[in-house]
Amino acid sequence: WNRTSMLINFSLGALATLRVPVAASRVPTPTSLLPGANDGTASLLTAAAELILRSKLRDCGSVRVRVQSNLGELLGRGSVEGVRVEGRDWCSPLLLSCRALDMSVGTTAIDQAALLTQQRVVLRRPALGSCTVRFTGADWRNFLRHPLFAEAVGARGAPPALAFGDGGRTEVTVDGVAFPIKWGELQLQARLVQEPVTGKAVVSCAPALLSSRPLSPYSAAQGDVSTAEDAAKAQGASEASAWLSGFFNQLKLNLDGTFLSFRRLAVVDCPGRLPRERQLELELGVCVRKFPAPQVNF
Asked: 216 by DSSP, 3-state: which?
């Protein structure tokens, strides 16, 4: 981080000594700030952003950052017209992982004073956009076990003894993802899909082991232990299904100032990967108020 901070401070300090012609400042001309672009500052800022991202990841297949801004607006107000971040095969220190990520946000403004004095990227107004993330079954299991997910579950007032990812297999299916949960004393298998008409996330849960005998009111009333237990399991599965459906539709994650919310899910086939596999794709709404602090790990 110190190296990154020095790089950003140096680039901003150098920018402060530049003089933008008045005629040029009156006519904003968007410039794509990419490594190799004609504007040297563009390369510095892009390199700094990519360096920050790489420093936060345990494993990283690729990182690409693209920024659009007018040089006069960037110098005068810290304004940028948009930022796009793309990456592949990411894994964080706390094992938050994905196969692909593509995030874009629109117009915002960087608080340059906070950047120079606090070494933090704080935005003067939120940057809004969207993000798609692709998970394998193993990535989804990591997601369910991650502290950020646990924090979101707790914020919604989860029932006691709700646990994810143990006691069964997690895999991407033809229309969603299946994963084990523990609901109280019940071991359940959950299945998350998107309802095609409403676009809502729907979770259906079933007991991992359910008696094959049909449940009848008479046998339950007569104290048939097996069918009474099956009835209790079915009731617990129904409660878990309703709670989890509501949870995923209102899912909100807080990455220390970057807020992600659920929009939709889909299953994509990845024939280019060996072995061939399905991946779960989540589309999330994005609201960035500040970048995560350098000491925060995910």
From this structure: coil
Q: Phi and psi for 182 in degrees, rounded to 5? A: -120, 120
| pLDDT tens track, the chain, 298 positions | 444 443 444 344 433 333 333 233 232 333 333 333 335 455 666 787 788 888 889 999 999 998 887 766 766 777 888 889 999 999 999 999 999 999 999 998 888 777 777 767 778 889 999 999 999 999 999 999 999 999 999 998 877 689 997 778 999 999 999 999 999 989 999 999 999 999 999 999 999 765 344 434 433 344 444 688 888 889 999 999 999 999 999 999 999 889 999 999 999 998 666 667 899 999 999 999 887 776 778 8
Angle at 187 between CA 186 and CA 190, to 5 degrees: 115
181: phi > 0 → left, psi -120 to 50 → alpha, else beta; which? Answer: beta
Q: What is the pTM of this model?
A: 0.79
Task: Indicate the burial class of 9 (C-beta count within 10 angstroms; 0-12, 13-18, 19 or more).
Answer: middle
